[in-house]
Amino acid sequence: MLEPDFVINTRTSYDTIADGYATQFKDEFQRYPLHRALLTWFAELVGDGPVLDVGCGPGRTTGLLHSLGVDVAGVDLSPGFLAIARAENPGIRFTEGTMLALDQKPGSLAGLLANYSLIHVPDEALSEILAGFHRALRNGGYLWVAHQVGDEPRHMTEAYGQEIDLVFRRRQPDFLAAALSAAGFELRLRVVREPEDGELTPHTILVARKRPDSDVL
Question: Which GO terms describe its molecular function (predicted)?
Fold first, then answer.
């Protein structure tokens, strides 16, 4: 099956800048304590798991959840990111794949994270991906979505001295909340924080629960 251009461009770009990205964000949970606190709360919601970190990048969020006692695995489309994730987290399973073709059994997950991984997905593919998340989660399972806030996409062609082709699709929290509701989720948390030093936009974190009556959707 032919992959969409956004998947190919995202994989190629992150492979190109994997080392630079991982170095820049090595201390991300020290820099963003609110993010860490909310992930700790998410870990309490999902209990032992299992949980899947979709678009896990270098595995920092996966590693944090693992340290909190969650049975968590990571999936990413970038072999460069996965090499870093495996080296830093030898006790966690990381696999190569895309959110368009998750291989989890239906209803098998207690939680799923899309931690800044929907930001490269065009609007026309969003409903298909959220439907896949919905299938993978058990009734009452939790979905975490972190995203930059905005109305216009940002196209980056250079980062860390390398040529890339990445489109960052900023979205409003109301848009994301409506997409989650349409996909069979009920919103449980919506947080918007202002930009930290070096950031260009506010950020939002949404946590939603799969509705027990939504398998008919």
Answer: methyltransferase activity
Q: Which domains does the chain have, with CATH numbers?
A: 5-216 (3.40.50.150)
Asked whether the beta carbons of 84 and 92 are under 8 A apart, the reply is: no
Q: What is the pLDDT of residues 203-216, one digit of tens each?
A: 999 999 999 876 64
193 has which bridge partners? 203
CB 163 within 8 Å of CB 157:
yes
Residue 203, Cβ density class (10 Å: 0-12 exposed, 13-18 middle, ≥19 buried): buried
Q: How confident is the model at residue 217 (pLDDT cuts 50, 70, 90)?
A: very low
